Each structure stands twice: as C-alpha cells, then as structure tokens.
C-alpha cells in the first residue's frame, strides 16, 4: 500500500465525519508516531510531514553518522559506510535524513495503523457528539423514528446521530411508526465506553416547559415566566405562571382565546389536561389556586421542621362537602399535582361535619379497606357523605359493584339507627 492510497482512504473518512484539516493532521501524526515507536523503539528522531488535502505523507528518520562498528543505537545512529550509500560525501558527526516508506513498516503494521486511525477518528467524533448534546440537555429536540423496540424507540437526527426514547420516558398514549418525527427534551447524555448515549424524554416537566416556550411567544421572550410545573404525563398537568408586566394576563396569554394557544401543547401531550394558574408568593393563595377547581373555605399550614425532607410542610385544607371530590380529583390526581406544585403535603378536611357523623375509617372492622379507599378517592370520607349519594351515582363514580354499595350503605345506616 503506497502512502497516497492510505491517505486517500483517510480523506474519505474525513469527508464522511466532517473532521477539520487541523484535527485530522493531529490524529494522523499521533497514530503514525505510535506505529514508528512500535517499529523502531522511539519516534523522537522522526519528522512527519502531512498534507491531507493532497494526500501527501512523508516520514523522515534523522540519524547521526558514526564510524563503522561504533553504532550503539541503529535507530539514532548510522555507520559511515551505510551513510555513504545514501550520499557518498557524508562524514562522521553529520546528520542524515532518510525517508521511510510505509511499506517498510510491514503489511501487518500498516493494517494495525489503519485500524488505530479509524478508532481514533471515531473516538474524536463521539467526543464531539457528546459535547454537542451535553450542551443541549434540557432542550427541545426533534428526530425521526428509525427503529421500534419493546422497551425503547431509536431515533436518528439529520446528522445521523442515534438517540433513545425509553418506554419509561414516553407518554402512555404515544404511538410511533418508522419515519415519524418526534419531539422530546434531551434528558441525559453520558459516555458508555467511547459511545455517547443520548436519552430523550417526553414525560419530564421540562418537556412541557419547552413546549410552552415554543408555542407561546410571551414565554419565549421572557415576558411570562413559568414558576412551577407538576405533571402526571398524558393525564393532567398544572403550570404556575407569572409576569413582571402588570398589563399582561399570564394565564390568558398562555391559554389563548378559547384555548387556541394551549391546544397544540395538549395535542402534543396526548390530550393531557393542563391547568394554568397564576403564581403568587402568598402560600395560602397559591395552595388554593393549585387545588382549583375546588373552592377552599380555610386552611392551616404546618411548616416542616426539616425542609431537607423535600416537603415544605403539611397543610390542612377545609372545604364544603360538595367541593371535596373536586379538590381530590379522579383517582386523587388533582390533590397529588397540587402537592407537587406547592411542595406541601395536603390533607383535605370536610368543613362542618355534624357531631353525629362518623369517619369511614371507623368502620374498618365491617367494611374492607379497599372499599373505604375507593369511596375516599371521590371525596366521601364520612358515613353521612356516602348515605347522601344515590347508588346510581356511586356506581358511575367508583369501581364498586351495586351489591357492595348497598351492603356498605346498610352498615352505615344501621350505625345511625342504633
């Protein structure tokens, strides 16, 4: 293999990977010096001249002329008789520069050199990709579905970079086909060996924030700030917004006329229901807004003694009986999101429970706990609150069977008759 053939093959690789000329020269010299060191024991006395644009490569070995029989290091010294074969007028003590052809390294060494060079260029490329995407962590990114696995979707971007969208980072209703364009945020980027692993997410709160920035100009421009996000991906989200400009209604600007602005975001998230509320530093008001659409009668905040635990504290929220189910939400979703958004553990209390009323938990020995939990999910946590509901309504709002509901009401009714 001639020098020019080897360089030509490297130039093709350079074009594919878009490696700049200076970097390629540096990598080439590093690899060739390693090969020379393996062959001759040292590369200190070699000059490597590379012009990758033309495919030129020259390697020169520099040695000092010594008297015949006096050479102690064949790599750095050359005997007079050998030197005069190169130039007949060489004298002892002079420097001799002799070109080394790649073919002199041996075919096996050349193949190893080529493999080493390709490995170095791939490593350089992987490092660049890692740095590029590390800077994009938390940013919105689009790529095309390339391959679908049972536990992840593999995507390729316009540059041919591979990205992974794990099943755990997909919205429950997500359904992709090969060739689909997918938007997500770059969640994490890490090197696994020499290859960068780029993980995307559509379930993180950051994805919702970035969609707001993309779809709502005032958020993108910084006129409206997003102060908090809580999500149950694909189901419901709460977003707290604020504006430093009193002339701007942040909620109205985000939602748009008849929901026109937020509609695209909702569609992207698989019809995820999004509540947008006004942020405030008044914690009582903030908690009340977070629990909307329920209307709060009063509340008592118990600050945490150790904020490091992750919660600011606990709050007892008092509501009228008919508002309890709204505060809790279907399956407890509303209260869970309000807790995430505000940082408080929220306990809902019914305002004005009559003295003769009894908490459902008091019937634990007669009614199974899972049945009590099912009723509490829809805000019914006392005996009278269950008795006030029609059987048909309870059938619609819970997963209980009619026979179970009738038996529960019978037990509760007997309590008051006694």
Describe the fold and architecture.
Its main location: cytoplasm. This is Transcription termination/antitermination protein NusA. It holds the Pfam family NusA_N. This protein has 418 residues and is an alpha+beta fold. The chain has 5 domains: 3-129, N Utilization Substance Protein A, Chain:P, domain 4, CATH 3.30.1480; 141-201, OB fold (Dihydrolipoamide Acetyltransferase, E2P); 204-273, K homology (KH) domain (GMP Synthetase, Chain A, domain 3); 280-352, GMP Synthetase, Chain A, domain 3 (2-Layer Sandwich), CATH 3.30.300.20; 360-417. The protein contains 15 helices and 15 strands. It has helices at residues 3-17, 21-40, 80-86, 107-134, 205-215, 217-220, 250-255, 260-268, 283-290, 321-328, 333-342, 369-377, 383-387, 391-397, 402-417; strands spanning 46-51, 56-66, 77-79, 95-99, 140-148, 152-156, 162-166, 181-192, 195-201, 224-232, 236-243, 273-278, 298-303, 313-319, 344-350. The strands form 4 sheets. It has a 5-stranded antiparallel β-sheet with strand order 7-6-5-8-9. Strands 1, 2, 3 and 4 form a 4-stranded mixed β-sheet that branches. Helix 1 (3-17) runs parallel beside helix 4 (107-134), helix 2 runs antiparallel to helix 4 and helix 5 runs antiparallel to helix 8. It is elongated, with a radius of gyration of 36 Å. The chain starts with a helix and ends with a helix.
């Amino acid at each position: 293999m001639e020098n020019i053939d080897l360089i030509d093959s490297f130039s093709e690789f350079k074009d594919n990977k878009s490696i700049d000329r200076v970097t390629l020269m540096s990598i080439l010299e590093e690899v060739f010096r390693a090969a020379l060191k393996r062959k001759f024991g040292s590369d200190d006395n070699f000059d490597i001249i590379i012009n990758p644009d033309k495919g030129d490569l020259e390697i020169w070995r520099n040695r000092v002329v010594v008297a015949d029989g006096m050479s102690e290091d064949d790599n750095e010294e050359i005997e007079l008789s050998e030197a005069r074969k190169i130039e007949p007028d060489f004298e002892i003590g002079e420097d001799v520069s002799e070109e080394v052809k790649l073919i002199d390294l041996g075919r096996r060494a050349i193949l190893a050199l080529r493999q080493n060079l390709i490995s170095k260029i791939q490593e350089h490329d992987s490092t660049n990709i890692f740095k590029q995407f590390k800077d994009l962590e938390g940013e919105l990114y689009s790529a095309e579905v390339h391959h679908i696995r049972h536990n992840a979707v593999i995507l390729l971007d316009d540059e041919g970079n591979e990205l992974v969208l794990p099943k755990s980072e997909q919205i429950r209703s997500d359904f992709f086909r090969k060739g689909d364009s997918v938007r997500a945020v770059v969640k994490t980027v890490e090197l696994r060996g020499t290859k960068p692993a780029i993980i995307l997410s559509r379930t993180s709160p950051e994805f919702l924030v970035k969609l707001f920035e993309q779809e709502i100009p005032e958020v993108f421009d910084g006129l409206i700030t997003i102060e908090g996000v809580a999500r149950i991906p694909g189901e419901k989200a709460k977003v707290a917004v604020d504006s430093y400009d009193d002339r701007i209604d942040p909620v109205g600007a985000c939602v748009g006329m008849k929901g026109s602005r937020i509609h695209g975001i909702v569609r992207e998230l698989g019809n995820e229901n999004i509540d947008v509320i006004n942020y405030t530093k008044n914690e009582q008001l903030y908690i009340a807004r977070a629990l909307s659409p329920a209307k709060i009668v009063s509340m008592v905040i118990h600050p945490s003694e150790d904020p490091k635990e992750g919660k600011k504290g606990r709050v007892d929220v008092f509501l009228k009986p008919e508002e309890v189910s709204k505060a809790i939400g279907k399956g407890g979703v509303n209260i869970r999101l309000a807790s995430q958004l505000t940082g408080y553990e929220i306990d809902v209390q019914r305002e004005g429970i009559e003295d003769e009323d009894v908490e459902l938990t008091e019937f634990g020995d007669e009614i199974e706990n899972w049945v009590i939990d099912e009723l509490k999910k829809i805000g019914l946590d006392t005996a009278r609150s269950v008795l006030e509901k029609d059987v048909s309504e309870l059938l619609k709002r819970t997963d209980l069977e009619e026979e179970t509901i009738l038996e529960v009401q019978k037990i509760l009714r007997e309590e008051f008759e006694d």
